[in-house]
Amino acid sequence: MAFMSAQAIIIDCDPGVDDAIALLLAFASPQALEILAVTTVAGNVDAQQTARNARLIRQIAGAEGVPVHAGATRPLVRAPIVASHFHGTSGLGWLEVSEPSAPAAAGHSADAIIAAVMSRPPKTVSIAVMGPMTNLALAMTLEPKLAARLEQVVIMGGARIEGGNITASAEYNVFADPHAASMVYGSGAPCIAIGLDATHQVRTTPQRLAAIKALARPSAKAVATLLEFSIDVQRRLVPGAPPPPLHDPCTIAYLIAPQLFETVSADLQVETESPLTLGHTAVEFRLPDPAAATVRWAVKADANGVFGLLQEALAR
Ligand code: RIB
Ligand code: CA
């Protein structure tokens, strides 16, 4: 796949098994993506571990030139909720974890996002958000011009037809910080929402795992180990379920190859009050003026295309 020039992006994440795969895909795609910074947030595991995990993945990818910033240690309002049952106590499943040699960069994730975006021309920097949206919400609060300056915000967050994965009605990233999600989706920034409706179409089948396991590079070996862990978790926690979905890498796949996804203009509102449906994303396609919509909801994903992209990148 040929590119005119690499897109300047920031990756905001809470690694996390699937965040780690998304990072390895991005680090392996320098022809398509110029990663200005990786910013981490508390989510799947605590903030200290998500920052360490991002640095460790960066080391595996040999990408120590990319700064990793640590960020919010808790959501804006609600109490923190981790997802270590799906990611292991380290947050990286069966991957061997050690202290990475290269340190985190100075500066909070929110400040790093502001600096990276505001120091470049308008509409030239995109951000992939694949954890609780606390850092981006803080950045938008600190710099009110940020939302209008971003080229696009590609978010793994929300659910419509698929229902929830952390509660009956909420997807984890939105549930973990619903106030931040409401701010980001309502900011006016051009948001591409890749929720469970799309990611549940992208599942790690035995054939897709085998294709990754056949690759020799360290990044490919790490992805294979991360995928095997997610398959084991799925078998243990969701008996009889289909193979596990690949959530966060879909945001990177969209940035590299948006044609792999079908999106629809939508009005997206987040429930921030109800104890029963906190974090629910109300995704409305019936719009008085579709052209005025700032959110596009992903309704279809090409699973073979996403895994093909991952395999091609890890083979490079
Ligand atoms: O609902 C899926 C999201 O929650 C992904 O970002 C995954 O990392 C988990 O945190
Ligand atoms: Ca995540």
List the helices and strands and how they pair.
Blueprint: E1 7-13, H1 17-27, E2 33-40, H2 47-61, E3 68-69, H3 84-87, H4 109-118, E4 125-129, H5 134-142, H6 146-149, E5 153-155, H7 172-176, H8 178-185, E6 191-193, H9 196-199, H10 206-213, H11 218-237, H12 249-256, E7 261-270, E8 281-284, E9 295-301, H13 303-315
Helix pairs in contact: 1-2, 1-11, 1-12, 4-5, 5-8, 10-11
Bound molecules: alpha-D-ribofuranose and calcium ion.
Structure notes:
This protein has 316 residues and is of the alpha/beta class. It has a single domain (7-315), classed as Ribonucleoside hydrolase-like (Inosine-uridine Nucleoside N-ribohydrolase, Chain A, Alpha-Beta Complex). 38% of the residues lie in helices and 16% in strands. The protein is built from 13 helices and 9 strands. The chain has helices at 17-27, 47-61, 84-87, 109-118, 134-142, 146-149, 172-176, 178-185, 196-199, 206-213, 218-237, 249-256, 303-315, and strands at residues 7-13, 33-40, 68-69, 125-129, 153-155, 191-193, 261-270, 281-284, 295-301. A 9-stranded mixed beta sheet has the order 3-2-1-4-5-6-9-7-8, sandwiched between helices. Strand 1, helix 1 and strand 2 form a beta-alpha-beta unit. It is globular, with a radius of gyration of 18 Å. The two termini are 12 Å apart. The relative contact order is 0.16. The model has no long low-confidence stretch (mean pLDDT 97). It binds alpha-D-ribofuranose and calcium ion (CA). Alpha-D-ribofuranose is lined by residues 14, 16, 18-19, 43-44, 83, 130-131, 156, 165, 171-173, 247-248.
Short characterization:
Helix 5 (134-142) crosses helix 8. The chain has 316 residues and is an alpha/beta fold. It has helices at 17-27, 47-61, 84-87, 109-118, 134-142, 146-149, 172-176, 178-185, 196-199, 206-213, 218-237, 249-256, 303-315, and strands at residues 7-13, 33-40, 68-69, 125-129, 153-155, 191-193, 261-270, 281-284, 295-301.
